[in-house]
Structure formats: C-alpha cells, structure tokens
What we know:
The protein is an alpha/beta fold. The chain has four domains: 4-128, 3-Layer(aba) Sandwich (Rossmann fold), CATH 3.40.50; 142-317, 3-Layer(aba) Sandwich (Rossmann fold), CATH 3.40.50; 319-388, Helicase, Ruva Protein, domain 3 (Orthogonal Bundle); 399-450, Homeodomain-like (Arc Repressor Mutant, subunit A, Orthogonal Bundle), CATH 1.10.10.60. It contains 20 helices and 14 strands. A five-stranded parallel sheet has the order 2-1-3-4-5, sandwiched between helices. A five-stranded parallel sheet has the order 7-8-11-6-12. It has a two-stranded antiparallel ribbon with strand order 9-10. Helix 2 (38-44) runs parallel beside helix 3 (61-71), helix 13 crosses helix 15 and helix 18 (407-421) crosses helix 19. It is globular and about 85 Å long. The termini are far apart. 34% of the residues are buried. The model is unreliable at 132-136 and 399-403 (pLDDT under 50).
Amino acid sequence: MAEILLVDDEAFFLKIMQENLRSLGYENLTSLSDSAEVSAAAQAKSFDAAFLDINMPGMDGLELLEQVKMISPQTECIMVTSNEDIPSVIKAIKLGAYDYLVKPVTAGQLERALDRALERKRMMDIHFLRQEKSFDEALDQPEAFAEIVTSDKTMLRLLHEAELHARSDIPVLISGETGTGKELMARSLHRASRRAQGPFVAVNMLSLSASLFESEFFGHAKGAFTGAINEKKGYLGEASKGTLFLDEIGDLAMDIQGKLLRILQEGEYTPVGKTNPLRADVRFVAATNQDLDALVAEGRFRKDLYYRLRFAQLRLPPLRQRLDDVRLLAGTFLQRSSRPQAELTTASESRLITHDWPGNVRELKGVIEAAANLAETGQIKPEHLNLPKPEYEAAIDQGSEEIAEPLAEIERKHILRVYEAMNCNKTQAAHQLGISLATLQRKLKAYQVK
Length: 450
C-alpha cells in the first residue's frame, strides 16, 4: 500500500484530503500542518507520494519540496496552490515536482493526480532496477517492437525505456527529426501497453484549425451546428480505451494548446452540443520534430503544456548518428522491396555510409526501394542510389584545383573520412576500405590518430 504525505496549514483542507484519499482506498496517510515537522517525517518513513502546499507559513512549499527531494529523491511530489501561480509552478517542476493542483481540489482531480504520480513512481523504480542490467538484453515484449530494426545502443536503450513507459498511462513525448520513426515508436509503445487491444488513432495536429478543433477532437451532437446532420464521436471517442497519437504537436496554435492542456489536466471533455462531460479514457502520445525548449523560450509553446508532456520523453537520434544501422536497415528494406534478391555492391554500401541522411530512415527506405527497381542485373551500384557524391568525388569529377594534391593526401583524407563515418570502428572501416585491419592500424598511426 502506498505511503502518502499530506502537508497543508489549513486543517479543513487537510481533513478533506484525508477523507477523499481514504475513500479511494489509501490508508497509509501522514498529515502535517507544520512545515517544521516535514524533515523528520521524511527521514523516518519512505513516502511514495507527497502533496505539498505552496503557500505555507514559515518554510514555503518550494523549500519543503527541496527538502523532501533531498531526503527522499524517489518521492513523487504534487504541489497544491490556492491560485494558479504559473511562475511558482514552473519553479516547483524544475525543482523536481511531478504535478500541481489548484484549490479547491475535487476527488476526481486528486485521484487522477495521485494515479499518475504513483504510476511514474513504479516506472522509475523499474527503471533504476533495469539500469543494473545490460540494455542489450532481450525486451520483455520483442514482438511489440519488431518493426523497429536496430543494433544501435542508443536505440536499444530507447526501446527499453519505451517498454517501461508502456506499463503506465502517463503521456509520452517522442521527439526527433523528420523521418526518424516517431509514429513507428508510438505504435510499438501502444502494442506493448495494456491498451494494446484498444484502437490506435493517429492525428496530424497541423490539420486541425482552431475553429474545428472542438468538433474534430471532442465530437459533437446531432444538430449542434449547421451541417452537423449526424452525431460524431471525435478523436477522443474513437481512441477510447486505446492510444491517441498527436503528431506535430509543436506546431499547434496557442489557443488549441490551451484546450489540449485542459484535457490532460482534467481528464474530461464535453462534445459540442452536449452538457454532460465524458471521461477521456485514452493514453496520450505526442510527437514533434521541433525543439520545444526553444519554442517555450520564444513564447510559442505553453510552458504548462510542455511540463505536462516532458516527464516521459523519448528522443530518437538521427540516422547519421547510428551509422551501424544503415546497412541493417538497407538490407531490411531490400527484403521488402520489389526485388528482394537484389544485392548492394561494396561501393554502394560505402556510398550509403558516407551520406548524411537529412531525411533519416524515411529517406533511406525511399532510396533503397527506387534503387532496387533500377538494378536490372540484381546488383545495386552507386549510380542506382541517386545520392549526391561525397565532396571529394565531386571535386574529382569537376576537375577542382583542390584535387591537385599528392595521392597520399587524397588517400589520407579518404581513409579518415570513412573511419569517422564508421564511428571510429577500425574493423568496420577496414572492411569498407577493402584493406586489412593491420594495414588500417598502421596508416592511422602514421596519421597520428589516437
């Protein structure tokens, strides 16, 4: 049974909190009205969650928060405030608070906030236990992530984190450049979750205008407005008991951001033309290729919405940072292409490795599929890839004056370029260059490469 700490100088509010929590089945409650008693209580008992009043006399809630997190970092703290003082809330979150509530607090708000906090606590406990193990170990649900092809350590770590997040219902934010596989990760997370039997509904948030947001998102009653000839569920209704994937969330208009924040806070919504609110029984997964920290600093993304989403964040690396996966992915895309028996020549593999891949995995997939069509003999050559040549090859073709240099220097530049492209893996670089490992080691030593 979870251990809960309640700290508030208002005796009546403290009593209401206790009654509500007991009605929800929580019996292990420690209630304090004096901030001076918090330190001793936190040292004597390990609390799973704590509700801390921001406006306490003597030591205020922010100081209490720092004290509790210093004594017990694993305690999930929820701040309670009598007014929505956003600067104080943001400071509290930066200091380690998980969530906040504004008085008066309803039983429903209390239950949702505590459920989310305890889910995060359980998730983090599992996470810290898993840190002691190798992330190269098999996933518990490999079938859920079968569509994500990787041998990259960063990606393997992300798959494990995604599997841990899948065990709870807290919102997840997936960030990364265009083409890195954000929706693929979201679908995998859904398949690994307890909502796997429910629907997965993907929404491109760029397609929602401010005027149509409530109708499209919340749904509407028949006759709610001109043209509403039938009742409509809306995205929240369609995704009930499943996962709602909000793509391109970084491009939302500010007024839509506010409406979305309310859903995340309250867990309820009211379809247009109806009066009774409905519970949003969905798991939210959002994705963006934008830098939300920068957008918040520029005032283009709401801080409070960002802090609702940022707790469980998966940052997908660009393909240029996981070059070990290029050959693996290329082989997978070939098997799924119109010519699964086609093969990449060594020169073609080198061209793939040295390309920057601004379009990431999506670009690689398109390049391989097109090349398979063009390779009539079954051998995919560099010219079939339709990729720009590396700078040094382009310079040779153009007769650049930069090429009027000793052959040894051209060789040095080429070897170092391939070596760096292979993330300084000597074995793979030697294979790509077509030389022995001993030869490569000798040349790198001559180039004074450590």
